[in-house]
């Protein structure tokens, strides 16, 4: 199933536009449009960890759209009639979309270097950051899988998923320090796994965890152990959403 989805992308390369052009646009937009007001070059160093995290999170939309399209065209029903595991249908989609996110990360690294961002750590640390991003994105893609199986069309799947992903992405320290948010939003942002993943990515790449040395981020367990917290949350998300996706897949037969 993973091979089938990757071959589809090779045959229809336009499908890669969302995985390449969108991350590039976000890097350039935040670096040059907002960067001057929020800290210039220092902000760009801070920004990239958030852009990396946002991109792998938004990749769940490809999973939702892909499964919604396959369901609408009857492809999922045909797969269900074959002697194959139901989990392979969804797992193949989430794995292929996770592999495509590697292309997005590569594009963002190139764009980051173009705007002045640099990896200031070892190769192993940088590789660890990429692996964490892939694992976190893989976990979130199962949310996209559930939405894609439930939604009737690709358009409704994307809209429903973005209603969830947009607020949790922006109520975090992906693009701004959480200390600037009002009380309830600050508390949410501090424990938001997007915050911890962005922070872990920044630390692994050797980038600042705040856009300015004068800004002090709140300290809690998640901020002190961002990598561990991100991994634990990703595992919990998988533990909840994988069974839900399989149950939704079974109910779709009716």
From TrEMBL:
It comes from the Bacteria. Signal peptide: none annotated. PROSITE patterns: ABC_TM2. It is found in: Cell membrane; Membrane. Pfam families: ABC2_membrane. It is a multi-pass membrane protein. The chain crosses the membrane at residues 12-34, 46-69, 90-114, 126-152, 159-176, 227-246. Keywords: Antibiotic resistance, Cell membrane, Membrane, Transmembrane, Transmembrane helix, Transport. Residues 14-252 form the ABC transmembrane type-2 domain. Belongs to the ABC-2 integral membrane protein family. This is Transport permease protein. It comes from Rhodococcoides corynebacterioides.
